[in-house]
Amino acid sequence: MIIKILNQLKNKYSAIPYIISPDKKIISKKEFNQTIKSIQTPQGFRFKTIFDSHNNSSIKNAKDDSFLIPENKLAFVKGEKLNLKITYPDDINYFKLFLKPTYRSGIGYDIHKINTTSKNGLKLCGIKINHSKLIGHSDADVGIHAICDSIFGALSMNDIGFYFPNDDSKWKNKNSIIFLKFAREQLKEKKFYIVNLDVNFICEKPNINKYRKQMIKKISSVLKIPENIISIKATSNEKIGFIGDGLGIAAESIVQICNEDTY
Ligand code: ZN
């Protein structure tokens, strides 16, 4: 549009873009069916034309430059409907409708060994379960670790071990909810929200289905997202390998996120 405006200024004094509204103006019966022309910006003028017009005009507080130009120097050029003008706060909301949302996905996987000599102390997705616990530097919550890694992945960050190294005594026996809260803060800082979260446990025992609802509730409250966008599922390893032998629990997570600045 700017090129079009500059081209017109080669042989005209001004180039005022306009669009024709599909609506009609009704003020009086006489004016019924009159077409509404809306004037847009940017407008182009030969410098002397606009400079002299401002200097010579008796009009104060003109709403538009084209208003000051003598009629014989006014020339129009076809504008563009999508040339949106942001003037009032509401215009920003309208403008956002035209922004395309950015969707991103992330994957996370984690596995921990079971301490077969322990009788209880297992924690999955923040829920205490009466079952042999997992061995790890923190509380070894595989579910939360996988969720964190999927969020970090979607945000193109490093893996969980980078932020919470397992050789740092600071994180020894720490509640993994802390890591999940860190992931939530990262989402907020980078202006993304979670579209949906899908978690899958791979283990022979315990029966995850019994704790699904509690886990969903917990994750929902920590991440501050609705329960109906969280899925927690489980599968056994069909007694194959060391997970099949009940020596470990694995979890995988996929998350989809979307940027906040769009509808
Ligand atoms: Zn882990």
Just name the CATH architecture of the largest domain.
Answer: 2-Layer Sandwich
- The percent range for helix content is 25-40%
State the secondary-structure class: alpha+beta
Q: Which molecules other than protein and nucleic acid are bound?
A: zinc ion
Number of strand segments: 10
Beta content comes to 25-35%
Which descriptor suits the 3D outline?
A: elongated
CATH topology of the largest domain: the name is: 60s Ribosomal Protein L30, Chain: A
SSE arrangement, N to C: HEEEHEHEEEHHHEHEHE
| Helix count, DSSP H or I runs of 4 or more residues | 8
Give start-end ranges of low-pLDDT stretches: none
**Sheet with most strands:** 4 strands, mixed
Output the radius of gyration: 31 Å
Give the mean pLDDT. Answer: 92
For the record, the count of structural domains works out to: 2
What is the CATH superfamily of the largest domain?
2-C-methyl-D-erythritol 2,4-cyclodiphosphate synthase
What distance separates the N and C termini?
28 Å
| CATH domain class of the largest domain | Alpha Beta
How would you briefly describe this protein structure?
The protein is of the alpha+beta class and 263 residues long. The protein contains eight helices and ten strands.
